[in-house]
Amino acid sequence: MNLSKRFVFDTKRKMGLKNFMTFVVVSWFCSIPTTCVLAAKQKQNQNQNQKLRFDENGEFKILQVADMHFANGKNTLCLDVLPSQNASCTDLNTTAFIHRMILAEKPNLIVFTGDNIFGADSSDSAKSMDAAFAPAIASNIPWVAVLGNHDQEGSLSREGVMKYIVGMKNTLAKLNPPEVHIIDGFGNYNLEVGGVQGTAFVNKSVLNLYFLDSGDYSKVPAISGYDWIKPSQQLWFERTSAKLRKAYIKGPVPQKESAPGLAYFHIPLPEYASFDSSNFTGVKLEPDGNGISSASVNSGFFTTLVEAGDVKAVFVGHDHLNDFCGNLLDIQLCYAGGFGYHAYGKAGWSRRARVVVASLEKTDKGSWGDVKSIKSWKRLDDQHLTGIDGEVLWSKGFHGTSGN
Q1: Is the peptide bond before 252 cis (omega within 30 degrees of 0)?
Q2: Overall pTM > 0.90
Q3: What's the domain of life for this entry (predicted)?
Q4: Are strands 331-335 and 311-316 parallel, antiparallel or unpaired?
C-alpha cells in the first residue's frame, strides 16, 4: 500500500505502548554481532542438510502466506472485519488459518512473503515471530521467509529479524548467499528442488526457487515511496540463474534449456500495473492510484528476469486486496492476497492464501522426468476453505492458459 494509506492504517494499529525492557534486552543481545551470527550460522548449517525434492507422485506443492502482520497474539485485534467479528477476532485467527491451510493442502514447502509481523504493534519481535511461524514449525514442513516493509519496525533491526528467522527450526531461509560478500538487503537466497528419488533426475534441480529482499522504503532523499531490488541483487540473480542453467543442460540427462524457476519477494514490481480486468485472473481492489503499490522508480528487475529466461512466475504480497495473476512476456506476475487478520483488508472479503504446484512429466519408460506444468489456485478462509481461480501458470507446450 502507498505511504499515505500506510499512515492511516498505522494509526488504527497503535494499540498500546511497547514493553521498553524487552526492547532493551533484545536489542542488546542482537547488538553482539558474533553471538547473533554464530547462532544463525550454526542453525543454518543444520538446516542446509535438508533437501527439497518432488514426491513420488511427481509433484511439488508450495503454500504462499502473504502479510500475516502478526503482533501479540490474543491481545491483538483484527482490522477490517465484519462487526460481528470485532470482539472475538485476533491474531489467533491468523494462526488458525495457517493450521487449516497446512492440513488441507499438505504442502512440500511453506513460503512467507513478508510483513510476517507488524513490528510497530509487537511488544517483542522475537516472540511475535515465534508465534507467527509456530504452525509451520509444528508441521515439520520446510519453510522459508522473506522480509516486507513492516517486519523491522519493532525491537529488532531488519538484519536482526532475518538472522532470527534463519535460526528457527525447520527453516531453509538464508541470511544472504554465502558466496557473495556484498549484496543489498537481507534474505537473498535460492533453493533447488530435486527430481523424484530413484529417477534419472534425482541429482538435478528440476525447479529453482529464488527469494529476494525487496526492501522497505526508499533511502534516496529525492525519491519517495517504497524500496526496490538493487543492482547487486540482480547481479547475484543473473549469476545464479546462469550457473543453474549450465548445470541443468549438461549430463546426466542433458537438457536443452533451463529448468523453470519461481521468484518470491514482498513489494510488487512496477510491471504489475500492466494489467486490467481483461488480462488477469483474480481481482485488483486496491483503491489508491493504479491499484499497485510498487516503488516509484523501475530498477529493471523485470527486464533482468526476462533476459535470464528461467523464471516463469513471480509471487508477491504487500497489496492485500489484490490477488491476481497476469502474464507479461511469458512471466506470470502474481499476488497471494492478504492472509493476516491484523492487516488492512475489506470487511466481508475473505483472507486468502495462494497454492502453487509443479508437476513432472512421465517419461517413455514410465518414470518421472522434468517439470511439465505449474498450476495455481487460492483458498479462502471461509467455512469450506473454498478454492478459487485455478489456472495453469506455465507448461511446456503453452503459456498463460487458465482453467479450473
Answers
A1: yes
A2: no
A3: Eukaryota
A4: parallel
Q: What is the pLDDT of residues 24-68, one digit of tens each?
A: 333 333 444 444 445 555 555 555 557 899 999 999 999 999 999
Query: How many of the other CB atoms lie within 10 Å of CB of 38?
Result: 12
**Grid cell at residue 55:** 514426491
With beta carbons less than 8 A apart as the criterion, state whether 248 and 241 touch: no
| 324 contact partners, CB below 8 Å, separation of at least 6 | 275, 280, 281, 282, 283, 284, 334, 335
CA–CA dist 389, 378 (Å, integer):
6
Nearest to 323 by CA among 351, 348, 301, 362: 351
Cβ partners under 8 Å of residue 210, min gap 6: 190, 237, 240, 241, 261, 262, 263, 264, 311
pLDDT digits 0-9 by tens, 274-315: 998 889 999 999 987 789 999 999 999 999 999 999 999 999
Which among 43, 65, 234 has a CA at the least distance from the CA of 148? 65
pLDDT of 290: 85
Residue 183 β-bridge partners: none
Angle ∠(151,318,103) on CA atoms, nearest 5: 85
Q: In this structure, how many other beta carbons lie within 10 angstroms of the beta carbon of residue 374?
A: 22
The C-alpha cell of 272 is what? 504489475
User: How much is the average pLDDT of 201-224?
Assistant: 96
Give the DSSP letter of residue 273: G
Cα–Cα distance between 141 and 205 in angstroms, integer?
19
The percentage of residues in the chain with a pLDDT greater than 90, rounded to a whole number, is 82
Helices (H) and strands (E) in the chain, counts: 9, 14
Cβ distance 121 to 151 under 8 Å?
A: no
From 27, 3, 62, 32, select the one nearest 377 (Cα to Cα).
Answer: 62
Contacts for 220 with CB less than 8 Å, ≥ 6 apart: none
- 281 Cβ contact partners less than 8 Å away, ≥ 6 residues apart: 324, 325, 326, 389, 391, 402
**Averaged pLDDT, 97-111:** 98
CA distance 344 to 277: 23
Contact criterion met (CB below 8 Å) for 297 and 267: no
